[in-house]
């Protein structure tokens, strides 16, 4: 789904200018990516110049948020297992790795007034719409409706939680409860 399609969907309910709707959509997409890690860079180097004193986190597009994991010497490591990420664009290794390029997963978010890749927008279009509608309905304009905005904010946050769970657990289904074993 393209940004223009999202604008047309929202324009049916809220008579705001297209530029205002576009900005609300980009802010909602940025917030979704920030809170739920829905845009993850894979199959590309995450850290370049890792074996120097100044390693850099490399995001292909957008801004880096957090490293989900790195593959160092053939094994997946998370933060605290030989490296730390004190800031979004800074990485500190406890011991310099042998490789210059380190692969892994890097969660990104779009820059201001930009959109994430199309596959992210296609997958989470409804959630982004709710976030944009919340923002638009809270503006002090003729179309303002705080009660309806609260509904859309609730739906947006529900979508964020679902997205976070989907990203962390994949397609896993089932209950969080454990069945007790039978005692014979």
Structural write-up:
39% of the residues lie in helices and 21% in strands. By secondary structure, the chain is α+β, with helices and mostly antiparallel strands. Strands 1, 2, 3, 4, 5 and 8 form a six-stranded antiparallel beta sheet that branches. A two-stranded antiparallel ribbon has the order 6-7. Strand 6 (83-87) and strand 7 (90-93) form a beta hairpin.
Q: End-to-end distance, in Å?
A: 56 Å
Tell me the number of helical segments per DSSP (H or I, 4 or more residues long): 5
Mean pLDDT: 89
Low-confidence stretches: none
Q: Structural class, please?
A: alpha+beta
Helix content: 25-40%
What gyration radius follows from the Cα positions, in whole Å?
20 Å
- Return the string of H and E elements: HHEEEEEEEEHHH
Largest sheet: 6 strands, antiparallel
Question: What is the tally of beta strands?
Answer: 8
Brief synopsis:
With about 180 residues, the protein is α+β, with helices and mostly antiparallel strands. The chain is about 40% helix and about 20% strand. It contains 5 helices and 8 strands.
């Amino acid at each position: 789904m393209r940004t223009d399609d999202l604008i047309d969907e929202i324009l049916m309910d809220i008579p705001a200018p297209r530029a205002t709707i576009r900005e609300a959509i980009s802010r909602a997409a940025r917030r979704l990516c920030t809170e739920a890690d829905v845009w993850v860079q894979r199959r590309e180097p995450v850290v370049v110049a890792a074996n120097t004193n100044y390693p850099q986190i490399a995001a292909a597009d957008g801004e880096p948020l957090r490293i989900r994991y790195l593959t160092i010497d053939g094994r997946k490591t998370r933060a605290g297992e030989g490296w730390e990420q004190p800031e979004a664009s800074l990485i500190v290794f406890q011991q310099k790795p042998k490789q210059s390029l380190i692969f892994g997963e890097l969660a990104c978010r779009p820059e201001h007034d930009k959109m994430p890749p199309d596959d992210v927008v296609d997958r989470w279009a409804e959630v982004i719409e709710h976030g944009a509608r919340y923002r638009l309905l809270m503006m002090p304009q003729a179309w303002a409706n705080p009660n309806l905005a609260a509904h859309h904010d609730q739906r947006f946050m529900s979508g964020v939680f679902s997205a976070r769970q989907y990203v962390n657990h994949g397609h896993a289904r089932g209950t969080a409860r454990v069945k007790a074993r039978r005692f014979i």
